[in-house]
Amino acid sequence: MLRNCARIIPGSAASRCFATSSKLTNMKSINLKLIMSTFLLRVHPDVMQVDRNSMKEVDQSIKDHNENAMKTLNAYLDIASAGCNGELKADDLSTREFPLEFFIPTTKKVQRSLRKIKTAGDAEVIHIKGNMYTRISHSVKLSDKLVEASHHALMHRRTVNVAAVHWRKDTNAVLRDLFRQADLPVLSVHPNGELIPW
Questions:
Q1: Where in this chain does the record put each DUF4460 domain (predicted)?
Q2: What is the 3-state secondary structure (H, E, C) of 107-123?
Q3: Which residue in 90, 76, 73, 72 sits closest to 163, CA to CA?
């Protein structure tokens, strides 16, 4: 829609079309926490299970660790949502690094494969009280290109769509990696085949 507006309305009229728009004009808003719901359920300390057929409890140290990691993830998702939806504020960029680390019970399938190839010592797993947990880790760093595009959009609202696309692509890469490490399928309902449309 934005491109059509610029194409049809010449000169200063096109400029006015851009200037009056302070939000996304050719992309729908997205809900990152809804997109991440299957991952959040996988790592949330209140719903984690060692084994669906077992009464064993997830160790409290794992629950505590994931609870703290959830706070970091939620902080990142809040900022990323603002960026993806063209609602970013200047103070949102004060934090540029979000170290994410979760542990989830290792599936029986993965445990069997680790025993077969004998690489459990090298894999991202830990053992606590007889249970195996898989480490999920991603150190999110807002790139200079992303921050520059964001600052530019704050000063020139007509570029908000450009910044939003940067945010969506970067955020999509982060979410894809988290899904991969958690062994979760990426189910897309968007033409680009990704978790996030752009």
A1: 26-117
A2: CHHHHHHHHHHCCCCCC
A3: 90
Nearest to 133 by CA among 198, 37, 197, 69: 69
Rounded Cα gap, residues 70 and 100, in angstroms: 8
Q: Tokens 């170290």 correspond to what residue? A: 99
The C-alpha atoms of residue 181 and residue 192 are separated, in whole angstroms, by 22
Give the position of tokens 């900022």.
Answer: 79
- Taking CB atoms within 8 Å and a gap of at least 24, the contacts of 108-113 are 108/51, 110/134, 110/183
Q: What does each C-alpha distance from 62 to 1, 98, 141, 147, 194 come to in angstroms?
A: 48, 19, 25, 33, 30
Angle between helices 60-84 and 160-181 (to 10 degrees): 160
- Measured CA angle at 96 (ends 94, 98), to 5 deg: 125
